[in-house]
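Tutorial, part two.
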Amino acid sequence: MPFRTPIRPFTCTLACLLAGCLLAACAAKHTYVAESSDSRRPKAWQRPYEVKGERYEPLSSHEGFVQEGLASWYGADFHGKRTSNGETYDMYAMTAAHKTLPLGVYVKAHNKRNGREVVVRINDRGPFVKERIIDLSYTAARQLGIADTGTAPVRIEALGYRNDAGSGSVTYRPPVSYDTGSYGVQVAAFTDNANARRMAEQLRRRYGSSSIQEAQVKGALFFRVRVGRYESLRKAEEARGGFEREYPGSFVVALD
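Running the prediction step on this input gives:
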């Protein structure tokens, strides 16, 4: 989402700062569970979607997710409007938008310039601008120290779903390395299976690994061609940059 400058009267700013202090004081008491009680039920917002001609596939799990890039924020122009999970956007709440993380997951964002950190809940999709990985609410941006600059380099880590029930549930524990998993790069999609197989075979010979995934999109059957198998999101993103020169619109996907 584009960078917006909200109206910031003194009384509102003071109230936000006081609210931020209260949130920070309570943050240490929260634990995070690996998945919510109903997280296995499919949700509409977990379906693949397309923005500006680019397709995005939400991750099925937050576990092991880490990412570095630019954080931005959105404010008054979107205040009161509906978010991707059906909530009403509140620029004074501790929320954020992300392109592929499961909605409802809590994320810790670390400002690499000033060392500040915030914990936000993902309830929206975006930002759809290259290099930007997370769009923070106004209050979260102020606490992270980027409300005036507009953007800042950050490192984000997925924590899980917040557990306020106390004992009796499994708390989230970070893995040894956040940058782990199985990822590939989707380079094309065909309605003709023969064309998809031809490209997949060419890619397999050149890069050692390729696959085809079938998917129904608006009643039509597509054959998605994916290349590579990378053990970290960072390596997959680096590979995507190379593939994009030959296959514009390439994007990273999580492999089964």
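The radius of gyration is 20 Å. In part three we will examine how such features are distributed along the chain.
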